[in-house]
């Protein structure tokens, strides 16, 4: 049920089963700065979080960085062509080493050198070399050169982060002993790996900042009850009646049929759009009317703002005219959604609502709210 | 719509996005976040803030010196970048130029993201 902030201060848990009661996640979990801090640990450090696409770093030595919460990581391909992730933090005195390097413009290096005192690491994270000042004791009268301990290459290497993938999609997990990615992904892994995702090229990245909590946008992405009223250009080509919704533990997918889809021979899927949401903040968008796919990263900036990083993959990174049109329509759709979620968030921020309620068909939103609650309580 | 147009905003042409800003340094924060995930530069679309005056100067140090009286605790980087927009500079270009002046000791930072001439 709906609960107003009317002085009673009462909220309840997200209902276990949406068919009997329909409590949403209490509003304070969307608006409280302390919740944002808590999520850095309880959500973004415990689950597998999307880091980027393997196609961006095909050659040994290529790398990009990605910031998740307060953590900056280097994702690179090593000499054995394995992809690895390291904290972008020097083992000497903790300096950030590599400048921010987006996967749209990856760097290339045969090692990682910290600019502060020039400790240098191999691509597998082991310490390769230190300057002479770390090998001799010229400045320290109490120590002889030959007594300076040699630094063990492995013990003084970079801190590695768990990395795993679904096809070319790379995920990292900061937990010391994370659940396997297979466990979090469930059937999503096999399903996505049946598509040739790696054969498509990154063609566009659009980044927008939106004035709402990241979960507000995630909820909007997860349902299409608002589409009829708000995405009139898009809805024309879609048979909503034939849509289907599948909800698994940590992901859900909305299927839509297109009036005019592309043929399967050249496309990932024929005439059907699929929108996958993978907890906590990644989506994969397959377009039944264009031969390509997109991804969204829904990155919180603070409790009241997030960044939408929208990447588009097509057969060729040079887009045809239709593809450019398609991406433009997709951008327009995003803008329409931004308006909706910003308005919703203004309402939530007013403090009037203590806890909203979900509709009987909003399973996916319900799943999102349950997952958030589970994470907070863990 | 006209209401909207009068508010200050920055744009990334490559992404075709614009972002309204109330506080000039919010533009700098946006630029930093945006650049870290795209590599793109960001420019002012329209800037209108107290104390900002369009100047015909395009020499950074004199622009900062000209603004200094109006900002006791240092000129916000966002104001400097907005002033330099008249000379066609993007936010990235202005910040880069400020950095190099600082490294030469010509500027100092009385508080974060605010500068004064030495
Ligand atoms: S902190 Fe990296 S070499 Fe000193
Ligand atoms: Fe929408």
Explain what this protein looks like in three dimensions.
- The complex is a heterodimer of chains A (378) and B (118).
- With 378 residues, chain A is an alpha+beta fold.
- Chain A has nine helices and 19 strands.
- Helices cover 23% and strands 29% of the residues of chain A.
- The model of chain A has no long low-confidence stretch (mean pLDDT 94).
- In chain A, α5 (214-221) crosses α8 (321-349) and α5 packs antiparallel against α9.
- Chain A is globular.
- Chain B has 118 residues and is α+β, with helices and mostly antiparallel strands.
- Chain B has helices spanning 2-6, 24-38, 60-67, 77-85, 91-103, and strands spanning 9-12, 17-20, 43-46, 75-76, 107-111, 114-117.
- The relative contact order of chain B is 0.18.
- The model of chain B has no long low-confidence stretch (mean pLDDT 91).
- Chain A binds chain B through residues 65, 67, 100-102, 104-105, 205-209, 301, 307, 309, 331, and chain B through 12, 15-17, 19, 30, 33-39.
- The structure holds FE2/S2 (inorganic) cluster and fe (ii) ion.
Secondary structure blueprint with pairings:
The complex is a heterodimer of chains A (378) and B (118).
Chain A: E1 3-4, H1 28-31, H2 33-42, E2 49-53, E3 62-68, E4 71-77, E5 83-87, E6 107-108, E7 112-113, E8 120-121, E9 127-129, E10 160-166, E11 169-173, H3 181-185, H4 187-193, E12 201-210, H5 214-221, H6 227-230, H7 232-235, E13 238-247, E14 251-258, E15 272-278, E16 282-286, E17 292-302, E18 305-314, H8 321-349, E19 353-355, H9 363-377
Antiparallel strand pairs in A: 1-19, 2-11, 3-4, 3-6, 4-5, 5-10, 7-8, 8-9, 10-11, 12-18, 13-14, 14-15, 15-16, 16-17, 17-18
Helix pairs in contact in A: 5-8, 5-9
Chain B: H1 2-6, E1 9-12, E2 17-20, H2 24-38, E3 43-46, H3 60-67, E4 75-76, H4 77-85, H5 91-103, E5 107-111, E6 114-117
Antiparallel strand pairs in B: 1-2, 1-3, 4-6, 5-6
Helix pairs in contact in B: 2-4
Bound molecules: FE2/S2 (inorganic) cluster (FES) and fe (ii) ion (FE2).
